[in-house]
Amino acid sequence: MRLILIWAIVFLVGTGLATLLLYDNGQVSMVWNDWVIETSLSFLVAAVAVAFISGYFLIRLFLNLWHLPVFWRHSRRLHRYSKAENSMAKGMIALEYGDWQTAEKQLIKSAKQSEAGLVHYLSAAKMAHNQKAYDRRDQYLQQARDEYVSDYVTIGLVEARLLWEEQPEVALSILETLHEQHPKHITILAEYSLALRQLGLWKRLEDLLPVIKKTRAIDKTELLALEHSLLAGKLATAMDETTLDALWAELNSRQKLIPQVLVEYVEQRIGRGQEVGLALLIEKALKKEWNDRLVYQYGRLTLGPAFERLKKAEMWLKDQENNPVLLLSLGRLACRSQLWGRGQNHLQESLKIRPEVETYHALAQCYEAEGKDNQAALTYKEAIVRLEGSSLLD
């Protein structure tokens, strides 16, 4: 509507001027020294209009010629960026199909021309890593460091993740260096704490924990799991009885019943032949949360009448009737109570669900205790043939 109004005004003004000039062309005289130029007003107006339009186009032409090199460079850059984007798209599609070789080739081909060159280098490094082409992986990471110096944090995090499986100590060193440079960086803290947890470096993780809580580097659920792992790890690595008792005394009643924590304490105590009070602790913990490792250790306890523990454990069958670990513990407790038939049935049921060497061994021992040496020998033979080298809790 606005454009129509403008054109209407231009048309009316033009029509008015044309009508005026038809009635009277007018006369213009220009004197310059001895020179006198006379012409009509309409011709002068037309000449001025033509001169203005010609001048405008000449100036535009000059400016375009002046900026032609810049325009050409800009056009070439856009073309390169377009090719880089197409190359990245092809690489991402190849990645979705699991074709790592093609993905790597497409991503690295136009890394230098792309505005997102860092993504190209890092993605190509991942693809080379997936192919176990570690030299190419390291080459791409080095190129990324050379060209994107300011993005060393991102490059370092990616490198640490790629090196973790083969060289965890090197990956940890990279994360440690990044943490020293950026002690409150959330992503670095999360990665660093995970590395310490997986390598079992509990003292360093304990020192880091206050910073993690203050910066909220990980969410509450992950933080709780990290704290549980820390408590369990410290108990698992206690070198002597004094240290173990001191660590246990530091825990509150709620922490002592956390299955992940309690099972480490139970295993340490059983290993040292100190089983007093363990059965009651395990029973309390299992009322709150089921844990196969605790049930497994419950079946290994030897202190006190096994029949009482058997009656307790058989009540758990209501919710865990097909649990092979529970059935193993029930079998052990029943055999220890000299209930040979019941124990052998539990152990055989466990083997049906998950055949394991340890379960075969417990069944053979139960046969031996009952005096069935031939049946025990057959059970040992079957275990050796079928399941040598396995473990129930692997």
Task: Tell me what the structure shows.
Helices cover 76% and strands 3% of the residues. With 394 residues, the chain is mainly alpha-helical. Among the domains are: 75-147, Serine Threonine Protein Phosphatase 5, Tetratricopeptide repeat (Alpha Horseshoe), CATH 1.25.40; 305-394, Alpha Horseshoe (Serine Threonine Protein Phosphatase 5, Tetratricopeptide repeat). The chain has a two-stranded antiparallel sheet with strand order 1-2. Strand 1 (27-32) and strand 2 form a beta hairpin. It is rod-shaped, with a radius of gyration of 41 Å.
Provide a compact summary of the structure.
With 394 residues, the protein is mainly alpha-helical. 76% of the residues lie in helices and 3% in strands. Helix 16 packs parallel to helix 18 and helix 20 (357-370) packs antiparallel against helix 21.
Helices and strands, with pairings:
Layout: H1 2-23, E1 27-32, E2 35-40, H2 41-66, H3 68-96, H4 100-109, H5 117-130, H6 134-147, H7 152-163, H8 168-181, H9 186-199, H10 202-215, H11 220-236, H12 241-250, H13 253-256, H14 259-271, H15 278-288, H16 292-300, H17 306-314, H18 324-336, H19 340-353, H20 357-370, H21 373-387
Antiparallel strand pairs: 1-2
Helix pairs in contact: 3-4, 4-5, 5-6, 7-8, 8-9, 9-10, 10-11, 11-14, 14-15, 14-16, 16-18, 17-18, 18-19, 18-20, 19-20, 20-21
